[in-house]
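Why predict the complex rather than its parts? Because the way molecules touch one another can change local conformation, and only a joint prediction can capture that. The input here totals 649 residues.
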Amino acid sequence: MRKITFREAIREALREEMKRDHSVYLIGEDIGIYGGAFAVTEGLLNEFGPERVVDTPISEAAIIGTATGSALLGLRPVAEIMYFDFITLASDQLVNQAAKLRYMFGGKAKVPMVVRGAAGCGTGAAGHHSQSLEAWMTHIPGLKVVMPATPYDAKGLLKSAIRDDNPVVFIEHKKLYSLKGEVPEEEYTIPLGRAEVKKEGDHLTIISYSNALIKAMLAAEILDSSGISAEVIDLRTLSPLDTGTIFTSVKKTGRALIVAEAAGFSGFDAEVTSLIAENCLDYMESITRLGGAFTPVPYNRKLEESIVPQVDTIVNKIREIVGPGRVSV
Amino acid sequence: MKLDKKLLLRMYHQMLRIRYFEERVDELFSRGLIHGTCHLYIGEEAIAVGAVSALHPEDYIISTHRGHGHCLMKGAESGKMMAEILGKKTGYCKGKGGSMHIADLTGRNLGANGIVGGGIPLAVGAAFALKYRKKKEIILCFFGDGAVNQGCFHESLNMSGLLKLPVVFICENNKYGMSMNIARACASETICQRAYSYAMEGIQVDGNDVLSVYDTVSESVESVRSGGKPVLIEALTYRWKGHSKSDRNLYRTREEIDSWKARCPIKTFHGKLIDELKVASETELLGLEKKAEMEMDEAVQFAMASPEPEVEEAVTDVYA
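Output of the joint prediction:
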């Protein structure tokens, strides 16, 4: 199968959905002539014109407000927030308006829109361009939250997000943009709200998403050679959460490790931990989580690497949990 | 303007409907029958009536937390509105929104809004959709003087000006953002002068004169409909009641309130219809008053008799 990058997979999803449905349009900063700060929308202005690829001034509230208001009238905007950190500037429009209009109007409105943006650390972009704010989003009823880790998932999930009748927050980790993966030429979609077992295993379940999932997969491969067989679940959609896949796996392995890049305190990993504890405690030998440090993201490379789980920290944590003598092979 | 008798009497009747509706809300609140708070529109009726009369039925509006007047004027049923305010199942939002979130989407009212200025970017989005689909409709975006110092006001005016969207902004300047006098809140002398920064026309109008509002909005709406730039209208008015139901009016004087009550938009219009325009008799206007009173009594009866929503409803309608 052909291999394309995460960035290309997202661009393909945008292009295909724009071709399929004229109500889909793109709006955001520097997405037109510039092609997007991460080159995701490159070429789309030429293909679809300025009416459907709308370059805006630096006005995040107006971008999300325009998207929301147009969605109320039946369009399907895909708004780009250049760095997801900037969602703070649009939070009223996203959190108070887009997420709640349907409910507050007694179910009479639909707000079919996607807000996509680049998040996460690892690029030396420091405290205003590196955050993982997904827990803010998952805490808002009315929003769906998607965080893919592979080109295949990114494409299939974004197509579903665009077709969904709810506001969907689609968070792309900037370290993933150049990651290559198999993506078929043929049309496909992946439903929102379904996790995937990316690797089967017996001794422990690693639950992760986005760039941390890639690290978790590498950690699991390393552990395979030392006789520890880890199952790896990619959540893909954080809200709504596929608890079924999580519970089935952790009941089988009896050990859960939740790995995320965002600050661990009050993080989404805490929610997963709590759900496992509430629902599967009788089956569990251990439930552990590995999140980021509770600090703004530092600039210095060494410091930046130190605050989020890396492959070796995941490996060490798993060895600690499973223990060399405790695995019956 | 063409002084069409039918239109003039309809305007008078609409102003009364709003006044009587709000008086009943006030009364229900005093009797402890309203669970939340309410922001009453009494004293500002000429703006909603003059402005919405200038629209086609297919045009859109977006409203504010002080939105009962806009909503009634855009064609919503008084009974379903009152039911929403009482939190009833038969209300516009099934009792889930209350006073600050009444929306009548079939009537093309995109709703009141609990966030000051929150509706302004949404209006830009609605206007974007209308232009995108090459429609002839426009949107009239209501907000108060408190909203013009929010960042989203400026972002929205700039964006709609750049994209030449079919939106008319109308600021109801009732002099106070809660307790904050406009003179202490706004560094510019007027609100409408801010339009010039965004290369659009800014017009100030007497918001207590329904015919002035009608004329100004009609002109702006037609200009925008024919492809012109957005317009910012500032309508000067005054709210007679407190900001919300907890207001003790500590920030303004009895004299000031009385001086504005003396300029009651309904009484003024009543006089104009009979003495100046000579289009109606006292008896005719009295008939309209009776009709409006009766409608609002029925609205209250309908709302009071309506059932509460089932508890299960609390967690539905979160997602489509």
